[in-house]
Design brief:
- With 115 residues, the chain is α+β, with helices and mostly antiparallel strands.
- A three-stranded antiparallel β-sheet has the order 3-4-5, with helices on one face. Strands 1-2 form a two-stranded parallel sheet.
- A hairpin with a 2-residue loop joins strand 3 and strand 4.
- Helix 2 runs antiparallel to helix 4.
- It is globular and about 45 Å long.
- The N and C termini lie far apart (32 Å).
Length: 115
Amino acid sequence: MICEHVLRWLICEPVVMAVQLDRLVSLSRLPNVTVGVVPLAGRMPDFPMTCFSIHDDRLVIVETFHSEITTRDPRDIQTYVDTFERFADVALFGDDMRALVERIRDEFLPQQERT
């Protein structure tokens, strides 16, 4: 799950951003990969404060600026599962997600042509 604003941040050259977004679209077509994008349009279900990964029902890893926090506490895990589900409820998947990511990718391409 990725928030749209993260895809729009220019953290490297525009052409590199375009290639990365194209790769994301390609990966989303794999049968064992699901990519969701939470669009800027619409109301956010929560404030996206940190990156986290849910590995199973026994482990969550939370990324901070200076470290990773690992939790195995069932209450903590449920908090992250609930948060993930709220974002998933408003995210775009499949063709809708790919169309959004491709539009963002294409917005980076004209920037490259001007430089």
